[in-house]
Design a protein that fits this description.
Helix content is about 35%, strand content about 15%. The strands form 3 sheets. It has a 7-stranded parallel sheet with strand order 3-2-1-4-5-6-7, sandwiched between helices. A 6-stranded parallel sheet has the order 10-9-8-11-12-13, sandwiched between helices. Helix 8 packs across helix 12. The radius of gyration is 21 Å and the shape is globular. About 45% of the residues are buried.
């Protein structure tokens, strides 16, 4: 198939440190190329990919202080995609509502992966384009009535996350994620202080969250019990998670898919999380982690989580959340959409073959 992958421009593909969507797009795109598909990746110019890279801006927009209006470059990107839509058998959008109006104007089908959350505002746009093809990244994400053609869980390459059979001594808890209220770093700190555990934290602080970080996080960092590592690269991330005894996932919103959970379990480290969003679909309760109803319960379950098999955590990710399984899911989605188009529109070209 000739496939267009459309990534956000805010971060490069793959991200050097934090960036869940861009990491998923990278793994998906490269594996599709390895399987023989003709893939074009629309992304920032500093992206690294096996696909044919098309860029409207030379670097990730978040790294350029001269960029004041993100929407301008996203519009340029989507213009480039849809002006050339006839070159592709299918367009795969990872940019949310921005692609919806243009997707309805061309004959090439678009599938939209829903990486974000539904809001009171964007629900109106999604509902207006209800019949377009959507992929949810968890069943919990399906909060409004859309044309869902499948649920495809995010996947990682376990080989990128070295397995750690025995965590570091002295033991510590890990928190990895964007430092924003909904990701719950403040709750991770509270859990560590309540239980007396050391806590190592890493992740980026966006400008919009700088006040929150300064007022609620920075004041708690002492470099001893509570340690902040800043924004770290992939190798450092794997080391942080792998050497931890437990990873905390104390979110306060219905996160569609928490990539950190499978990254942690891939290294062997179990996860203790709040029962919101995709959490009960990702964690095997009582086997690879604990799904809790409150932050107090998270603190109370640390002792029981110490008994979980780290090897089982690793195998669970290998069996359920690999890149191979993710790409299998998306190939099935592409084929379904193209076949449905054939049945509704008659003969169409797919790659070099006309049906």
């Amino acid at each position: 198939m000739k496939i267009a992958q459309v990534a956000p421009l805010w971060e490069q593909v793959p991200p050097p440190s934090y960036g869940g969507i861009e990491l998923v797009v990278s793994r998906l795109t490269d594996e599709l190329v390895r399987r023989g598909h003709d893939v074009t990746l629309f992304a920032s110019g500093d992206s690294q990919t096996l696909a044919d890279l098309k860029a409207v801006y030379p670097r990730a927009l978040r790294l350029d202080p001269n960029v004041k209006d993100y929407g301008v470059y996203e519009t340029l990107e989507l213009s480039q995609v849809y002006q050339n839509a006839a070159e592709f058998d299918i367009i795969h959008s990872h940019v949310g509502i921005s692609a919806l109006p243009l997707a309805s104007l061309v004959s090439t089908p678009t599938v939209h992966t829903l990486h974000g959350k539904f809001t009171n505002d964007n629900r109106n746009v999604f509902s207006h384009h209800q019949k377009q093809a959507y992929v949810s990244i968890s069943n919990a994400q399906r909060q409004i009535d859309l044309n869902y053609v499948g649920t495809v869980y995010n996947g990682i390459n376990p080989a990128d996350y070295p397995f750690v059979a025995k965590p570091e001594e002295p033991p510590y808890l890990a928190f990895l994620g964007r430092f924003s209220p909904e990701k719950g770093p403040q709750h991770a700190i509270a859990i560590a202080k309540k239980t007396g555990w050391r806590l190592k934290m890493a992740g980026k602080v966006d400008l919009v969250d700088s006040k929150f970080f300064e007022q609620e996080i920075a004041t708690e960092i002492d470099g001893q019990q509570i340690e902040y590592l800043g924004e770290i690269n992939h190798a450092e991330k794997a080391e942080l998670l792998g050497n931890a005894t437990i990873t905390l996932f104390p979110i306060s919103w219905s996160e569609p898919f928490g990539l950190v959970m499978i990254e942690s379990m891939a290294t062997g480290t179990p996860v203790i999380a709040i029962n919101l969003g995709s959490v009960p679909e990702v964690i095997a309760q009582g086997v690879t982690g604990m799904v809790c109803q409150s932050y107090d319960e998270m603190a109370a379950t640390i002792k029981s989580a110490l008994e979980f098999s780290r090897q089982t955590c690793r195998e669970y990710v290998e069996n359920n959340f690999s890149v191979s399984q993710m790409v299998n899911g998306y190939e099935a989605v592409y084929e379904k959409i193209i076949q449905d188009r054939i049945h509704s529109n008659g003969r169409v070209r797919v790659g070099n073959i006309r049906f």
